[in-house]
Amino acid sequence: MSFDLTAEQAILRDSLSACLARHWDQARHNKGGIEARRRLWDDVVRELGLTGVTIPEAQGGLGGGRVDMMVIARELGRALALEGFVPTVVCGGALFARTGDDRRLAALAAGDLHLALAHVEPGQRPDARAVASRVAEGRLTGTKVMVAGAPLATHFIVSANEPGQDAFSLFLVPAGSPGIRRRDFNQIDGQPASELTFTDVAIAEDDRIGDAGQGPDLHRAAADEAVIARAGEGIGMMEVLIRTTADYLGQRQQFGQPLATFQALQHRMADMLLQLEDTRSMLHMALSADDTDPAAFQQAVSGLKITSSEALRFVSQQAVQLHGGMGITDELMVSHYFKRAMVIIASDGGPDFHRKRYEASLG
Questions:
Q1: Do 247 and 347 sit in the same domain of this protein?
Q2: At what angle do helices 294-323 and 333-346 cross, to 10 degrees?
């Protein structure tokens, strides 16, 4: 499988990079806020049609694949922008494609959906097949925590158990439905998030995504796609951190010479670059894995999650340390990349879940 970008993918990369440069910068990122992120979504996603990149042409999309998704995620990582791309385009697209939901795929391609995943509950394990939230007699009741992007979403993808089912189902719930209460806050990376409480929220039969009790398999498949996308995002972040840190070491003087001339610091920069290349190699392996063989694909995804998490943690920590005390200040973008890295590492089950799954795949 070739990972050289096609002419179309190169145009997509350059167009997205230029668009982000026009609409997003350090001042706007640091100020943040819901309205700024909503304007960015409208300006960039709708302008470039990003929600339809991986959706089949028959449903109004561009018919791209995982490499196109990686190209977008890498540029978003470089700019620290559009955190909602993964839950909306990657996870939503995967869920609707797996369940053959052409109507929702078309709505996603048209930019009518902005999704947030409402799955996590207090004390819940990443591999849980049942949740405390319930749908009974057409009413949803329960509480979800750490719902990233909820204040921006038009719809929530909610996990809930139904009567007679041992495993949860997934439901697409409009964010404005009566009975939903939000408690908003910001995550450590500045991304808006919420705790959601559902009290007798009306649920129709066609609000379910897939079949009753199919939620765990659908959720895990979507999370695996998210791992690939977030690895691409992490690569973009690490590229910026390495370049920014190298520039700083070349400018900062100590003992009458640039810090970049000190061999110990050169070794640390070399180690950062090696971590980046390890992640890039594992991403290529996951992209080339045969997803018709679920065991092999899941093994490749878990290997990618483990490697990318270790690399992102190492590179972001080294970048902060090599910048010294100012590396943790809000005025320096290095600190914001570090905070975003911590959120990405903890997402999609985290490294511990994927280590266990990888070990299990080895027999």
A1: yes
A2: 150
C-alpha–C-alpha distance, residues 233 and 345, integer Å: 11
Task: Please check whether residue 344 is in contact with residue 311, taking contact to mean a CB–CB distance below 8 angstroms.
Answer: no
The pLDDT > 70 percentage for the chain reads: 99
Question: Which strands form 192-202's sheet, in the order they lie side by side?
Answer: 134-136, 139-148, 192-202, 180-186
> What is the CATH number for 79?
1.10.540.10
End-to-end CA distance of the chain: 28
Q: State which residues form the domain around 303.
A: 216-361
Q: Give the pLDDT confidence of 73-101 residue by residue, as tens digits.
A: 999 999 999 989 999 999 999 999 999 99
The Cα–Cα gap between 335 and 235 comes to: 17
Judged by DSSP in three states, 226 sits in helix
Residue 279 near residue 230 (C-beta atoms within 8 A): no
Same structural domain, 130 and 183? yes
